[in-house]
């Protein structure tokens, strides 16, 4: 074969190749990691030099206190520095000659709905919207609520707020009017940005109607929203009966195009709040997690670069919605800070059919693909042919986030989707951590273990604690906590610093408490075992729900499983499993025995579920997390005490499960 042909074959068959942005050896990783822990002040200052600042940070810019006995909990990074994250995401690339490079490749609900916006287009639109926000009296520190589907206007609105120092609060466009009102009132937004509606598969979602109801509720609650800016979605116009309130509502297409396409960025202090993001805790009202500017920017930019091996011009796709943290850090800020081309996906991965993801990857030649195990599990049941008929040779790095990935899904992702060529970065992190915490890096030196989130990212010191708060060293298991601060961490909860301290720092003073359990193996690899509130103790055996779920999900007839612990008079707790079969016809006694035998064989007799409850589907939050709290209540017959189910994607699943109890 001609040399060039050989070369081009190598390129298209594309084994993962080391690039300058990749850490190229274990020794390099260890050296940088060590440095990041021993000298956080110096290490992160060096990293921060890759970004544009209007004023450099002080020499000793980093300080924190994690000990509740030692005064208030606080962290600051890059103290004294001033920057603007929107400038770093956009202006910088336009100035560097990348203005005509695509920034967003938007794909709508239908495969033929497409829109490309270049970096120059996005910058101009961000400036117009910033100018409009300023004209509405929005000032630095004011909060703007965004209730939008996955259209370019959503990240544009986030960046426009950031440009003028306003704080954005994105509320997933699936929350009910009540939840939306609660979140708007909590942060007292006077401006809300929304759209007429959106199509999710074949279903229209009437967003403006929901906003109208929410704003009525706000009025009743004594909070008035002055302005609602509405994006017109031609595929989903205003629903009959939904109107425009002339004194409050304005159209994006009438008011934004006439604004000037330049707007000076507001250079803000490093610790100026950038956004609020509400997340549910195990109890009480949703928490408004507050992220600030400088540390978050550096953490997001640097982790995206190393974890996804990202360089300017790379086509990157995260299936996350901007309504949750992944959509903030690894769809909007991180990729744009690295000059990437972002696919913005405004549909559902199974619409019009289960090949949609692979079509999108082929069409846009996606290089890095970041998704959640739940999606993989739902797709893998349909077999491999649906995947392999599309060209995935552009793929180089695959990412997983949101929950532990079971081995079966990991292998399918690696072997079928990634053709064994792409490393899988199983990234463990949280809304509160802001950025990746524990993850493999995509270098051939980095050994991958299916199901393990692997090693700490730079600057992160994970520790395992015993229930008494003693550090477990070496190989062992415990409660996952983090020692020492990292740049991307949340600084407080909106209007409730006390709750921030009591939730995350009081359980073990001196540490950030993650709420997850984990195990460290002989190689120092970390395996997340699930939330500590989900750990089941059966006759003294500690069993991670994730472990049992993983075992069930390994069975080819099991599409998905969720396991909870229920009180048991003799064993303390017993294991209660909800199982979705790939073929519902198989539900019955015989299948139960098959699954029980399978778990017994995979983990051991102590891990066998006492109950297998057939579940046509599982109650999930809109970000795809199984709501185990609800499953526990249903299992224990306490459905009157379900608590807040406002974050469920489909609340009717709960009634269905109740009706199937004992079947
Ligand atoms: C980013 C995000 C955080 C919780 C976290 C943990 C679970 C996330 C995971 C994972 C195992 C992973 N989680 N990534 N568990 N392996 N790679 O999901 O944020 O929505 O706040 O959820 O998700 O339990 O504590 P958030």
Automatic annotation (TrEMBL):
<dbReference type="InterPro" id="IPR032387">
    <property type="entry name" value="ACAS_N"/>
</dbReference>
<dbReference type="InterPro" id="IPR025110">
    <property type="entry name" value="AMP-bd_C"/>
</dbReference>
<dbReference type="GO" id="GO:0005524">
    <property type="term" value="F:ATP binding"/>
</dbReference>
<dbReference type="InterPro" id="IPR020845">
    <property type="entry name" value="AMP-binding_CS"/>
</dbReference>
<protein>
    <recommendedName>
        <fullName>Acetyl-coenzyme A synthetase</fullName>
        <ecNumber>6.2.1.1</ecNumber>
    </recommendedName>
</protein>
<dbReference type="Pfam" id="PF13193">
    <property type="entry name" value="AMP-binding_C"/>
</dbReference>
<dbReference type="GO" id="GO:0019427">
    <property type="term" value="P:acetyl-CoA biosynthetic process from acetate"/>
</dbReference>
<dbReference type="Pfam" id="PF00501">
    <property type="entry name" value="AMP-binding"/>
</dbReference>
<dbReference type="InterPro" id="IPR000873">
    <property type="entry name" value="AMP-dep_synth/lig_dom"/>
</dbReference>
<keyword id="KW-0067">ATP-binding</keyword>
<dbReference type="Pfam" id="PF16177">
    <property type="entry name" value="ACAS_N"/>
</dbReference>
<keyword id="KW-0436">Ligase</keyword>
<keyword id="KW-0547">Nucleotide-binding</keyword>
<dbReference type="InterPro" id="IPR045851">
    <property type="entry name" value="AMP-bd_C_sf"/>
</dbReference>
<comment type="similarity">
    <text>Belongs to the ATP-dependent AMP-binding enzyme family.</text>
</comment>
<dbReference type="GO" id="GO:0016208">
    <property type="term" value="F:AMP binding"/>
</dbReference>
<feature type="domain" description="AMP-dependent synthetase/ligase">
    <location>
        <begin position="94"/>
        <end position="486"/>
    </location>
</feature>
<feature type="domain" description="AMP-binding enzyme C-terminal">
    <location>
        <begin position="547"/>
        <end position="625"/>
    </location>
</feature>
<feature type="domain" description="Acetyl-coenzyme A synthetase N-terminal">
    <location>
        <begin position="29"/>
        <end position="89"/>
    </location>
</feature>
<dbReference type="InterPro" id="IPR011904">
    <property type="entry name" value="Ac_CoA_lig"/>
</dbReference>
<dbReference type="GO" id="GO:0003987">
    <property type="term" value="F:acetate-CoA ligase activity"/>
</dbReference>
<dbReference type="InterPro" id="IPR042099">
    <property type="entry name" value="ANL_N_sf"/>
</dbReference>
């Amino acid at each position: 074969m001609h040399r060039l042909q050989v070369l081009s074959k190598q390129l298209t068959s594309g084994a993962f190749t080391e690039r300058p942005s990749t850490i190229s050896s274990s020794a390099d990783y260890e050296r940088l990691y060590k440095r990041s822990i021993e000298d956080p002040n110096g290490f992160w200052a060096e990293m921060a030099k890759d970004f544009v600042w209007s004023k450099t940070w002080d020499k000793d810019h980093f300080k924190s206190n994690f000990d509740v006995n030692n005064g208030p909990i606080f962290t600051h990074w890059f103290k004294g520095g001033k920057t603007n994250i929107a400038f770093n995401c956009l202006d910088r690339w336009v100035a560097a000659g990348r203005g005509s490079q695509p920034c967003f490749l938007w794909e709508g609900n239908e495969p033929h709905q497409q829109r490309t916006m270049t970096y120059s287009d996005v910058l101009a639109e961000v400036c117009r919207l910033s100018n409009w926000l300023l004209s509405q009296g929005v000032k630095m520190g004011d909060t703007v609520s965004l209730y939008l589907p996955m259209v370019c206007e959503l990240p544009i609105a986030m960046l426009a707020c950031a440009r003028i120092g306003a704080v954005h609060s994105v509320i997933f466009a699936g929350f009910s009017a009540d939840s939306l009102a609660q979140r708007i009132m909590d942060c007292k937004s006077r401006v809300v940005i929304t759209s007429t509606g959106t199509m999710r598969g074949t279903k229209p979602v009437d967003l403006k109607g929901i906003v109208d109801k929410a704003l009525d509720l706000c009025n009743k609650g004594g909070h008035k929203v002055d302005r609602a800016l509405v994006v017109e979605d031609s595929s989903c116009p205003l629903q009959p009966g939904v109107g425009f309130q002339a004194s409050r509502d304005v159209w994006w297409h009438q008011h934004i195009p006439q604004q000037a396409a330049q707007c000076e960025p507001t250079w803000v202090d490093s610790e100026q709040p950038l956004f609020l993001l509400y997340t549910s805790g195990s109890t009480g009202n949703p928490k408004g997690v507050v992220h600030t500017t400088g540390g978050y920017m550096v953490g997001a930019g640097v982790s995206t670069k190393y974890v996804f091996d990202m360089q300017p011009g790379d086509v990157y796709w995260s299936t996350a919605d901007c309504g949750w943290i992944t959509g903030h850090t690894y769809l909007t800020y991180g990729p744009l800070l690295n000059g990437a081309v972002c696919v913005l996906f405004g549909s559902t991965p199974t619409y019009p059919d289960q090949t949609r993801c692979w079509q999108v990857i082929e069409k846009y030649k996606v290089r890095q693909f970041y998704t959640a195990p739940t999606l993989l599990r739902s797709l893998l049941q349909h077999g491999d042919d649906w995947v392999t008929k599309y060209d995935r040779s552009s793929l180089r790095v695959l990412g997983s986030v949101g929950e532990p990935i079971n081995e079966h899904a990991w292998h399918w992702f690696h072997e079928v989707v990634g053709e064994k060529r792409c490393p899988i970065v199983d990234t463990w992190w949280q809304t509160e951590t802001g950025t990746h915490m524990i993850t493999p890096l995509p270098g051939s030196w980095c050994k991958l273990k299916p199901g393990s989130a692997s090693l700490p990212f730079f600057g992160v010191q994970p520790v395992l604690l015993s229930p008494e708060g003693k550090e477990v060293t070496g190989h062992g298991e415990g409660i996952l906590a983090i020692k020492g601060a990292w740049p991307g961490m949340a600084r407080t909860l909106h209007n409730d610093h006390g709750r921030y301290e009591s939730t995350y720092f009081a359980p073990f003073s001196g540490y950030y408490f993650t709420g997850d359990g984990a195990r460290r193996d002989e190689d120092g690899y970390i395996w997340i075992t699930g939330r500590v509130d989900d750990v089941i103790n059966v006759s003294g055996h500690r069993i991670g729900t994730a472990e049992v779920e993983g075992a069930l999900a390994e069975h080819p007839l099991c599409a998905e499983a969720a396991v909870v612990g229920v009180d048991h008079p003799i064993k303390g707790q017993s294991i209660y499993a909800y199982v979705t079969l790939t073929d519902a016809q198989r539900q019955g006694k015989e299948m139960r025995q098959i699954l029980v035998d399978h778990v017994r064989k995979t983990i051991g007799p102590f891990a066998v579920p006492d109950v297998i409850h057939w579940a046509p589907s599982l109650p999930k939050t809109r970000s795809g997390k199984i709501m185990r709290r609800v499953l526990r209540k249903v299992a224990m017959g306490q459905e009157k005490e379900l608590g807040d189910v406002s974050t469920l994607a489909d609340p009717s699943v709960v009634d269905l499960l109740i009706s199937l109890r004992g079947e």
